[in-house]
Amino acid sequence: MERTFGRIGRKLGRMVAATALVAGSGIAVAIVTASPASAATTLKVATTGSDTGNCQSNSCLTLGYALSQAGSGDTILLEPGTYASAHNPSGTSDTVGASLSGLTIASDSGAGGSASNTIIDATGEANGLVINANSVTVNGLTVENADNEGICVTPSTPSITGCVFTPPSSPTPAVSVTGALIENNVVNNNDACINHPTAADCPQPPNPFDDYGETIHLMSVANSTVTNNTVENNVGGILLTDEVGPTDGNTISGNTVSDNATDCGITLAGHSTNAVSTSGPTTGQPQPSQGGVYNNMVINNTANDNGAAGLLAAAGAPGSGVYNNTFKGNTATGNGLAGMTIHSHSPLQDINGNIVEDNVFSTDALHGGAGGGPGDAEGPPASANLTQTAGVEVLTVFAPLTGTLIENNTISGVYYGIWQSGLVSSTISGNTITVSPGGTQVFNVPAAGSGYRMAARDGGVFDFGSSGFYGSAPGSSLGAPVVGMANTPDGGGYWIVASNGNVAAFGDATNYGSLKGAALAAPIVGIAGTEDGGGYWLVGADGGIFTFGDATFMGSVPGVLKPGSHLNGAIVGIARTPSGGGYWVVGRDGGIFTFGDAPYLGSMGGTHLNAPIVGIASTPGSVDAATGSIVPDGYWLVASDGGVFNFGNAGFLGSMGGTHLNSPIVGIVPAAYALNFANFSLQSTGYSLVASDGGVFNFGSANFFGSLGGIKLAAPISAAG
């Protein structure tokens, strides 16, 4: 129906209006008469043709030439064969100019043509097809080997080349293409830039984890349909974005989007920062005439075995919006991220009101669900990461995420059926969820600072507040006293480590190995989990570093000591940077050693201490507004007498120094953080100190959730998190 209305509109546009004076009335009225209009014609393309004439009486050789001869409303039919874009007279991607509204490009079924034998080979070109006109149909073709998108639908503006967007120096009016129909095509082996990223047609992706636009890309497109296509073996599948205007009212249906090894199957991504007002009286309100990805239908698709999410609705920068979309009747199995993934990464976004219903999700989030890691094109930061398989993942970092409806889905073969983190308010009903042993049908990540845990030397674990209990290793089953504890990023599990390097994992923590039975130069004294929960570092009293899982070795203390030198104090702890790209190691004298992206911000080395340092904790970091990456910016040290020493952006909020303690302090646990919008720093607002008798002392906004003080313990507390 949309296409019918579009053609009526074009016919009316060809009519000529004149004015006449009605006799005796003095009233001028418009008289509308039809002007001659050229009838729609059919153009032919064949591998035996010649690029001469008008492609009507005789077939032409290339699609590019046929496009130069076509008019609005025409049809171009391609006979079976392979058509190299590089052979076009212009030597560039096939482009449907803005004047060619209503054009159809299709395989010639009358000549036996179909997507199986009618191929546009875009080797060496940026795109296979670029569509800048309204109401264009592409039917029954194979489009392959493009450096970027196979099929790109977008308005023709000075800021867009193909589907590569360059932000203009000054604001421009919002614009969208409408009425496209992309159906019955095979679009595969595109995004070839990943194999030769320095080629002329290969601009750098928006961030290191992004791709080159997916292989069917609707950029600022409205009321269009992508249906019954096969999209396989690209970097990513189908992408809807809103760089220069809103993307709304589209239907993505009946497509098979599989084996796109690096990115998502079907992605709705908010790129425009004009979609939501970020200032003035309308702050936080959507601006649908300016941008946003909204009111789209993603129905009855198959999105299997993709490198990231099967289906993704996400946005990165403040001012972006992906809202009121419906994902219904889809199947997503074997994807790297959750079958349905919804992410909001910045304040002043609208990722609300999305509907997820009647879908089948199974064995998804095989790579976990890194908020800002590989596969999530909308980037960091993330306050928590999914560490196990999941059917549906809903994450918000700063902005409340409301109105999500998750109902009547069938979810199986996963650890978490539905995983939610942040200020998420969803309606969940009627789902059939089957989880693996130890898993949870619906898991809500505890809010930062809403609880804490302790581990005793005998392996006992004690939880307080919203920190769940997932098991312990009582009776020193690890073969040595417990010396360290680390939580998984989503708080759904934890690791404990003994001085012999033996590691035990609980909840959604995975055991990636240990040093049990290894000959150690010094006992292990601490553990730190990686940013995505996919591994951990162990540190010895001599500063030796041992890596497991995806933890990267970035150096050790013995490796940086000068020959013949020695430590002034044994190493007592390790803390990773918020970005996961480095770690700090601290000695009992307060000396600091930095590795990877961990900055040196000061230490207590060489300073007289009333008591030895026993622990270190990192601030949550700051957000680089230009890149969205997390920048490490501070840390605290704590001494056994409760003295607290702060460096960088770590604020001093009080200590127990000079106060009589019943037992020595063994660790420090940061509380929740608050975002400072002025400089995008994630400022911690408090911390808790934990003593060996289980006593807890809170400072700043850190809440008291209970303690073990006054309770007789089988073994002293040795670690906290």
Explain what you see:
- With 721 residues, the protein is mainly beta.
- Among the domains are: 1-37, no CATH class; 451-720, TolB, C-terminal domain (Neuraminidase), CATH 2.120.10.
- 3% of the residues lie in helices and 39% in strands.
- Strands 6, 9, 12, 18, 22, 26, 30, 33, 34, 36, 37, 39 and 41 form a 13-stranded parallel sheet that branches. A twelve-stranded parallel sheet has the order 3-4-7-10-16-20-24-28-32-35-38-40, covered by helices on one side.
- Helix 2 (63-69) links the parallel strand 3 (42-45) and strand 4 (75-78).
- The longest helix is centred in the first third of the chain and has 12 residues, at 2-13.
- The two termini are 59 Å apart.
Mean pLDDT: 89
Work out the number of β strands. 63
Flag low-confidence runs: 1-37, 370-383
CATH superfamily of the domain at 451-720: TolB, C-terminal domain
Key phrases:
721 residues, mainly beta, Neuraminidase, 13-stranded parallel sheet, 3 helices, 63 strands, 3% helix, elongated
SSE order and pairing:
Elements: H1 2-13, E1 15-21, E2 28-34, E3 42-45, H2 63-69, E4 75-78, E5 81-84, E6 94-96, E7 104-107, E8 118-121, E9 129-131, E10 137-139, E11 142-144, E12 151-153, E13 160-161, E14 164-165, E15 177-178, E16 181-183, E17 186-188, E18 216-219, E19 221-222, E20 225-227, E21 230-232, E22 238-241, E23 247-248, E24 251-253, E25 256-258, E26 266-270, E27 293-294, E28 297-299, E29 302-304, E30 311-315, E31 322-323, E32 326-328, E33 331-333, E34 340-344, E35 355-357, E36 360-362, E37 390-396, E38 401-407, E39 410-421, E40 424-429, E41 432-444, E42 451-456, E43 461-465, E44 482-487, E45 493-498, E46 503-507, E47 524-529, E48 535-540, E49 545-549, H3 557-560, E50 571-576, E51 582-587, E52 592-596, E53 613-618, E54 622-623, E55 630-631, E56 634-639, E57 644-648, E58 665-670, E59 673-676, E60 681-684, E61 686-691, E62 696-700, E63 717-720
